[in-house]
Design brief:
307 residues, mainly alpha, globular
Length: 307
């Protein structure tokens, strides 16, 4: 017990090791899943198109490599971003264990559960990392959208900073935090919950300890990622809508109004009676793509970090 009431424990691995593992997993997942990221971004913007239509146009215009449009921007964001996320997460895990919160003077009467601790750790780490790397997120969204003709990431950053200032580089910060903070908090809490629930069933498969641990980590990450993605998906659409705007500032409310209006205008007069429902559901149109991306992108991170 430290002088100020905190118990001292040695973390399982170093912060540097966690950051390197996170960066490696981020690079692998970003490269493998970039085609789905491009499809998701274009689905979130008008006009409404199917996955098949988007893929066909990309391949026709740019060849198969067109599916990896924006990969460099994705790597600029993901490699340091995931490394930073896991580095912060590792630090928080070493200092905000539920028993430490409860044993610290002033917190004894608070019912701080492990689920709350996990949510706090994930939300804080993701929020900080997302804010620091937001300029690369803006560039990524714009390149993937196909609406901007930047020759490279460096040029994009310079042009955005010159023409739009800091506001342009950090466009969509509110929507990003409303997506990333609850996403990561929900994911990390759900991951811990499912990992505990799945372990007895996985043990029945007769795998060795390392195989059982790896399978449990990957399975729990996939399920938790799907749950978190479904909950926060509307803000993902709002984020993309905001970040591709160049001429004016578009807040979160304005983004949802734009999405609503675009969908209403797309509907025929015969569908008008159901237009409000359709317009609301428009934010969930590309959710299937997002739910495919999220579990696998977090699954490899969980494997490298927790395994």
């Amino acid at each position: 017990m430290g002088a100020n009431g905190w118990k001292k424990e040695q973390p399982k691995s170093s912060v540097t090791g966690s950051m390197l593992a996170g960066s490696l997993s981020g690079a692998l997942s970003a490269t493998a899943l970039q085609p789905l990221e491009v499809v998701k971004t274009r689905q979130q913007l008008p006009p409404s198109r199917s996955v098949r239509q988007i893929v066909s146009v990309l391949v026709e215009q740019k060849g198969v490599l067109g599916l990896w449009t924006g990969l460099s921007a994705s790597l600029y964001r993901t490699v340091p971003g995931v490394g930073l996320y896991f580095g912060i997460l590792h630090t928080l895990q070493a200092t905000t264990k539920s028993d430490r919160w409860l044993s610290h003077p002033g917190f004894e009467s608070m019912a701080i559960t492990p689920a709350f601790t996990h949510f706090f750790q994930g939300a804080t780490a993701r929020g900080l990392a997302a804010t620091v790397l937001l300029p690369f997120t803006v560039v990524k969204a714009r390149i993937e959208s196909g609406l901007f003709q930047y020759s490279n990431v460096r040029q994009a950053l310079i042009l955005i900073a010159t023409r739009e200032g800091a506001q342009g580089l950090f466009r969509g910060l509110g929507a990003t935090l409303l997506r990333d903070v609850p996403y990561s908090g929900t994911y990390f809490a759900a991951y811990s919950y499912f990992k505990q629930k799945f372990q007895p069933h996985i043990d029945q498969l007769g795998l060795d300890e390392s195989g059982s641990t790896a399978l449990n980590a990957a399975t729990s990450a996939c399920v938790a990622g799907g749950v978190a993605s479904a909950i926060t998906h509307p803000f993902d659409v709002a984020k993309t809508t905001t970040q591709v705007q160049q001429s004016k500032h578009l807040g979160i409310v304005d983004a949802f109004k734009t999405i609503y209006q675009v969908q209403q205008n797309r509907l025929s007069d015969e569908q008008y009676c159901n237009s409000r429902t359709h317009a609301f559901l428009f934010v969930y149109n590309p959710m299937s793509t997002n739910i495919v991306i999220s579990p696998f992108s977090v699954a490899d991170g969980a494997f490298f970090f927790f395994f």
